[in-house]
TrEMBL record:
Lineage: Bacteria, Pseudomonadati, Nitrospinota/Tectimicrobiota group, Nitrospinota, Nitrospinia
CDD domains: LolA_like
Organism encoding this protein: Candidatus Nitrohelix vancouverensis
Protein name per the record: Outer membrane lipoprotein-sorting protein
Superkingdom of origin organism: Bacteria
Pfam families in the record: LolA_like
InterPro entries hit by this protein: TP_0789-like
Length: 258
């Protein structure tokens, strides 16, 4: 069966008919995905800062291991190192191009692995403003798309596309995504809840290029407009080519991850 990506690969050979907004939106998403393929694996450090409406904050130190999977979504293992009350907590993600992602959470205090149910992926990830569905790789097939407009954001010429989750239990009715035209980097995402109200905004900044090809942000700032809370993720020390295999991302890896 022809996949969405295969179909898009054939588009340049088709007659130059005008694209519909839906075709243009999908083409932008496919190009964004194409530019992110081929990284293999990487590990990076992350500092997560949670801030409530009163401005009180707490900080968590995390390692994120990632493995690219051919013909499917990526695998990742997120491990909390500090503070002591969350040390050893680990989340294992298997993203899929179609169907529901698989996610397991290891809680060292309970010494057990908990599977995140398909109906609970809109829940908060470790008290942050990121949902479980936000922390998996965002595969093209997970959404339908529509180009909305072109716009300048922070001095960069950008596409603005709408994407609607295919996942029936998503906490979002739709998302508006700003992508810069030159490098196809995500700049901003507005998330709308099931009642079509603006729920959260995620802003990416501090992009650096790795392996002369891949652009990753140093900062991801998620603001919840309905609760007044926010979460800042600060990334550093990306290391590629670690030789990870599937064995580094099985369920036993959750308990070995300390």
């Amino acid at each position: 069966m022809m996949t969405i990506v295969t179909a898009l690969a054939l588009l340049p050979l088709a007659p130059a008919f005008a694209e519909s907004p839906e075709e243009k939106g999908l083409a932008i998403a496919v190009e964004d995905d194409r530019r992110d393929n081929g990284f293999g694996d990487y590990v990076a450090d992350m500092v997560m800062t949670l801030k409530n409406k009163q401005g009180e904050s707490s900080t968590r130190h995390i390692r994120s291991h990632n493995l690219e999977v051919e013909n499917d979504g990526d695998k990742s293992l997120v491990v909390f190192d500090r503070p002591r009350d969350v040390k050893g907590t680990a989340l294992l993600n298997f993203s899929h191009k179609t169907g529901v992602d698989d996610q397991w959470l290891f809680l060292p205090a309970l010494k057990r692995v908990k599977r995140i149910s398909s109906a609970n992926k809109s829940g908060s990830f470790m008290g942050s403003e990121f949902a479980y569905e936000d922390v998996t790789s965002q595969e093209v097939e997970k959404y339908t798309y529509k180009w909305l407009r072109d716009e300048t954001l922070e001095g960069m010429d950008s596409f603005v596309i709408e994407r609607i989750p295919a996942y029936e239990h998503s906490g979002y009715s739709r998302q508006e995504v700003w992508i810069d035209k030159k490098e196809y980097r995500l700049l901003k995402i507005d998330y709308y809840d099931r009642k079509q109200s603006l729920l959260k905004t995620l802003v990416y900044s501090g992009y650096n290029q790795y392996l002369d090809r891949f652009w990753y942000p140093d900062r991801m700032y998620m603001e919840n407009h309905q609760t007044g809370k926010n979460t800042l993720l600060e990334w550093s020390d990306y290391k590629f080519g670690n030789g990870y295999t599937d064995r580094d991302f099985d369920k036993n890896s959750l308990k070995r991850a300390r």
